[in-house]
Write a structure and sequence with these properties.
Elements (H helix, E strand, L loop, with lengths): L2 H9 L2 H11 L26 E4 L2 E6 L2 E4 L4 H6 L17 H8 L3 H14 L2 H29 L5 E2 L5 E2 L7 H17 L3
Antiparallel strand pairs: 1-2, 2-3, 4-5
């Protein structure tokens, strides 16, 4: 065996030689090696709202998109997407984020919707409905605030110096109930 043969053997592996043979024979698509692979089990078709576990994560389909369910789902709802869910345009205008948080769509889609409502003659009804929804949200927030105040503990407080102080007193529940009823009556009177 000459020196030149040993150089060639070192440069080309058996796989390379087999590949060249396949090309010469016109079998360029033939495999030169065997490999072991992984095929994922087919999970079947999932529909909107289905919840399933796959790979240690919990998944669902929302608005036609597969999403994993996490502790940050509330943040996902509060975050503004890159594209408007209705018209699929980029949400980069200054007011798009505010309109998305209020109406779930971009400024242009909201303008188009409001124009249709005005042309149909139902604008006053629409404004009244939105106003009443806002008042209902205020009522719910107020009731939650009252419940939080009632569940607070007055047992001890820690000062800035780190001293623990015990305070006497607390919330006057009768006065709070009376005030709560007055506030609810006032908020309901604001409805149109």
């Amino acid at each position: 065996m000459s020196k030149q043969d040993s150089v060639l053997k070192r440069q080309f592996s058996e796989k390379d030689i087999q590949r060249i043979r396949n090309i010469v024979k016109g079998k360029s698509g033939s495999k030169t090696t065997q490999s072991v692979g992984y095929s994922k089990k087919s999970q079947g078709k999932h529909e909107e709202g289905d919840i399933w576990e796959e790979g240690g994560k919990i998944w669902t389909i929302r608005d036609g998109i597969k999403e994993n369910i996490t502790k940050l789902d509330k943040f996902k709802k509060a975050a503004v997407p890159l594209f408007c869910p209705k018209c699929k345009s980029i949400m980069n205008k200054q007011l798009d984020s505010s309109y998305f948080k209020s109406y779930g769509q971009c400024l242009d889609c909201t303008k188009a919707l409001e124009t249709k409502i005005k042309l149909s003659g139902k604008w006053d009804e629409h404004v009244k409905e939105n106003h009443n929804k806002h008042i209902d949200n205020l009522i719910n927030e107020y009731l939650q605030f009252v419940e939080d105040k009632l569940s607070e503990s007055n047992d001890n407080f820690v000062t800035e110096q780190g001293d623990v102080e015990n305070w006497l007193g607390g919330i006057d529940k009768e006065r709070l109930e009376k005030t709560k009823l007055e506030v609810l009556e006032y908020l309901n009177s604001l409805k149109k």
